[in-house]
């Protein structure tokens, strides 16, 4: 994922009883965003507890593509719909590249961990994956040219890392990555509403 990728992570607390409507709204946001130029993907991180925070992550090829989405009337309409279903203002964090691997809804409005910590945790997550996945794919990729075998392997490893491995590894190392919420807190003025 290039370092210039435009990613926005929006954390919201849903009004009790509005969970189903909010989930439908989030799916609608992802569907609407997918029609915009530069859209790469989106995902929802569900709360661990009933009153926990929901997080929507949208990825665009560049920050410019992300801004085009955020400033669009379609996005503004979804913001209004989400506002009616949630409590208080959202926490909005814009990140680039692999920082999104370390964004957890339960951590809230915080800066990403230091790069040296993310490097260590990324290595812990990726080492077993790059050790095992190529061996498992050998029957499929064995007869392919090396460049194509590598492409197939990466096409499987990256989604696996993004949606399965890193959310779990980040939660496992949460206390170490985010030792003090006050220390890493982002001043509210550094975020705009989404």
UniProtKB/TrEMBL annotation:
Source organism of the structure: Rippkaea orientalis (strain PCC 8801 / RF-1)
Domain ABM: 6-95
One Pfam family linked to the record: ABM
Protein name (database record): Antibiotic biosynthesis monooxygenase
Regions crossing the membrane: 119-141, 147-166
GO MF term (any one): monooxygenase activity
UniProt keyword terms in alphabetical order: Membrane, Monooxygenase, Oxidoreductase, Transmembrane, Transmembrane helix
